[in-house]
Amino acid sequence: MMGLFQDLVAIQREIYLAFADRIREFAETGDWALLAAYLPMGVLFGAVHTLTPGHSKVVLATYLTGSTAGVPRGMAVSLVLSFVHVGISVVIALLSLPLVSVALGSVGRAPLLEDISRGLLGVIGLWMLWQGFRGTGHAHGQSMAAGFAAGLIPCPLTLFVMTFAISRGVPEAGVAFAAVMMIGVALVLGTVALAVVLFRQQLFRLLAMRPRAVDIVTRAIQIIAGLILVAVALNAIRG
């Protein structure tokens, strides 16, 4: 497992260094063709980066396991998470002067946004607990809120790329790379969402002849998922 992680980090490093060279060339020439030819690698970069620890994969899987979301809504949640995760990094970089002293505590991290993210997830966890004990369903708005809250933690590598591009006077190059990188992030998170939703649906199909069992299992999963999200929030507060 450690070897796989090291391989993923090495792939990211090679792509990042190669793209840094393209940014330098673009800053000197202004030739979009040079940049565009390498942009597809950003999709691979985003996918490989998302396979490493973090990026709210566990939070996404936990929430969807305890939800009643079908495949379309599960995929929508993963897309919201991907967009916010990458997009918030772009916004922070572009507005770095007013935001950096408030949100960023160290390179590649945003403690304030992380606290907000975990706090919102804690609230959603409490809501899931309440629903589990009452036996009520999930609201659609809550699903989107969960994706938004989980995505509030910025993507550190997007921040690095954006900062590098801005330092070369070509922020548009960083934005272009972030856009294609988001596709790779979405592919991985979408796969996680799809797998979790299909597994949950298959489990309930097996229990379809026992409606009482389905109700018990559904409520138990909601309660467990809610407890996990609350625990994540409390752990962040203690940290």
Task: Report on the architecture of this protein.
The protein has 239 residues and is mainly alpha-helical. The protein has one domain (2-238). It is built from 11 helices and no strands. It has helices at 2-29, 32-36, 41-51, 57-66, 71-94, 96-103, 111-134, 140-151, 156-167, 171-206, 211-238. Helix 4 (57-66) runs parallel beside helix 10 (171-206). The radius of gyration is 20 Å and the shape is elongated. The model is unreliable at 97-108 (pLDDT under 50).
Mean pLDDT value? 77
Radius of gyration: 20 Å
Inertia-based shape: elongated
Share of residues in helices: over 70%
Number of helices: 11
Order of helices and strands: HHHHHHHHHHH
Helix/strand class: mainly alpha
Low-confidence stretches: 97-108
Strand content: under 5%
Number of strands: 0
Number of domains: 1
Distance between the termini: 27 Å
Largest sheet report: none
List keywords for this structure.
239 residues, mainly alpha, elongated
Summarize the topology.
Elements: H1 2-29, H2 32-36, H3 41-51, H4 57-66, H5 71-94, H6 96-103, H7 111-134, H8 140-151, H9 156-167, H10 171-206, H11 211-238
Helix pairs in contact: 1-3, 3-10, 4-8, 4-10, 4-11, 5-6, 5-8, 5-9, 5-10, 7-8, 7-11, 9-10
What's this entry about, in short?
The chain is an all-alpha fold and 239 residues long. The chain has helices spanning 2-29, 32-36, 41-51, 57-66, 71-94, 96-103, 111-134, 140-151, 156-167, 171-206, 211-238. Residues 97-108 have low confidence and may be disordered.
